[in-house]
Amino acid sequence: LEFEVGEGILVPRPETETLIEAVLDHRPDRATPLRILDLGSGSGCIIVTLLHLYPNATGVAVDLFAAARECTRRNAERAGVADRLEVIESDWATAIDERFDLVVSNPPYIRQDEMPDLAPEVRLFEPETALVAGSDGLDAYRIIASDLPGLLNKGGLAAVEIGAGQGDMVSEFMSDAGLAIVERRRDLAGIERCVVASG
Q1: pLDDT score for 25
Q2: What residue spans of 38-138 are helical by DSSP H?
Q3: Series of mean pLDDT values for 10-residue runs along the chain (199 residues)
Q4: Fold of 32-110+124-162+171-180
C-alpha cells in the first residue's frame, strides 16, 4: 500500500508497523468481520491498512482536522477500502456513540519541551497538534484510556502507539480505566512502541 500525506498531516513512521503487527497477532483470523475505530486517523495509514488486511471489517476514522479527514478518504479510495470506511469529524471519541471490536490510535505523544530538539524536517513541516500532547506528552492517552471502556465491545481490543519510555504510564491509565493489559510490544530497536489492552 502507498499513502499520500499533505501539509498539516503527520508522516507515517516505520514504528507504526509495530501496532499493525500486534493487531494481526492478537486477531489472526483475517476473515473476522471486525468493527474498527481509529482515533486521530491523520493520513489514515492505520485504519486503511487494517481494512486492507481484514476484508470483512468495517471502520470509522475520526480526526478533528479537515485536511487529515480528506487525506484519510483519499488513501482509503486509493487502497480500495473506501466503501467500508466512514470518516467523521470528532475531538477524539466525543462524536462516537457505538462500540467496536478494535480501537486503534497513534496519538500525539511528544512533550512540549521536546519540540525544539526534534529533527528540523519534523519540527518545521509537521503539525504540532499531531506531535505534542502537553507538558508530559501523555494528555491524549489520558483521554483515550478514559473513553475506551465505553468504546470497546466485551472482549474488544485496543492498541495504541506510544513514545519511548511511556509504556508504564499508558498501561497504568488503561488499567485504571478497567482494561486488562494484553501486551507491551517493542519495535525492532527494542523500544516499547505499542500497548495492547482488552475490554
Answers
A1: 98
A2: 45-53, 66-79, 120-123
A3: 59 74 97 97 94 98 92 96 98 95 86 54 48 66 96 98 92 98 95 96
A4: Rossmann fold (3.40.50)
pLDDT value at residue 117: 58
Here the cell at position 70 is: 480528506
Which amino acid does the sequence have at 2? Answer: E
Q: How far is CA 142 from CA 107, 145, 160, 166, 195, in A?
A: 11, 5, 12, 12, 14
| Distance (Å, whole) CA 125 – CA 152 | 35
The residues spanned by each domain of the chain are 32-110+124-162+171-180
Max intra-chain CA distance, the chain: 45
d(CA 183, CA 161): 12
Q: How far apart are CA 151 and CA 105, in angstroms?
A: 13
Inter-helix orientation angle 45-53/66-79, to 10°: 20
pTM assigned to the model: 0.86
Identify the residue whose cell numbers are 484510556: 145
